[in-house]
UniProtKB/TrEMBL annotation, chain A:
It comes from Vanessa tameamea (Kamehameha butterfly). Transmembrane segments: none annotated. Keywords: Metal-binding, Zinc, Zinc-finger. The keyword DNA repair does not apply. GO terms for molecular function: zinc ion binding. Pfam families: zf-C3HC4_2 (PF13923). InterPro entries: RNF4, Znf_RING, Znf_RING/FYVE/PHD, Znf_RING_CS. Residues 80-120 form the RING-type domain. This is E3 ubiquitin-protein ligase RNF4-like. Gene3D superfamilies: Zinc/RING finger domain, C3HC4 (zinc finger). SMART domains: RING (SM00184). The keyword Cell wall biogenesis/degradation does not apply.
TrEMBL record, chain B:
This is UBC core domain-containing protein. The keyword Ion transport does not apply. Residues 3-149 form the UBC core domain. The keyword Transferase applies. It comes from Euphydryas editha. It comes from the Eukaryota. One of its GO terms (molecular function) is transferase activity. CDD domains: UBCc_UBE2N.
Amino acid sequence: MGNNIEDDVIDLTSSFTLVDQRGLANVIIDLVSEDSFNSSLQTKCVAKKHSQALTACIEKNSSGSQKKEEPRILKKFGDCPICMEELGKCPMSSTNCGHVFCSNCLEQSLKFEKRCPTCRKYLKGKLAYHPLYLSSD
Amino acid sequence: MAALPRRIIKETQRLMQEPVPGISAVPSENNARYFHVIVTGPEDSPFEGGLFKLELFLPEDYPMSAPKVRFITKIYHPNIDRLGRICLDILKDKWSPALQIRTVLLSIQALLSAPNPDDPLANDVAELWKVNESEAIRNAKEWTRRYAMDN
């Protein structure tokens, strides 16, 4: 049985895409804050008995219960230089030169010009930018 | 008319709350994308003491495209032509959506402090600026006194 649980955890982390990992990070926060537990994800998975609850949480999070998440953003990361909204409210991306924007803003900007809006570095191809995930802890 | 993007609202608020020294930008009452701008001539430049009126318009796809800016007050400057059009890279190919109204106006103010006759828009002015800088500066001061100080 112990093996099964462990397998579950490995499955979750290894087979998830990056987007789902963000969901996973949210789940950890959710579980800890709701139950006032300091237990690890693995323990909580045991407590919930199965990963279906987890999946449900992830789906709930990704389908946008943004308002519920907002108060948990404790640190301020500044504003997106393009829309000037607080970073972290929307999914974020970092360019390969390290400048961070809302993903939508950056993608829209790159349609106009394939350069970093902040430092004007030429950005092209798959590795030009990537999603950025920050834990609230 | 489409709703005003939040970015424009935010920029306008910040321009009002924390104005740039020597620059005022006030949106028109009937068009929030059209700004009445006044730039004071920088110290130690031939434009010192002058108040220069400009108009600034935020196009539909702003901030993906640059604001359109033009001097209304006549000015003797190698990078500004007689129609008030400005030769400034960030208003053209060097525009980036991370730039703002504030940074554009600061760049224009800096252009007044540092005319660049090697990248001219007003060819006659640029030419004189290169061959006889003191006379060009005298002209610039005279135009400032004549056109930018009368009110």
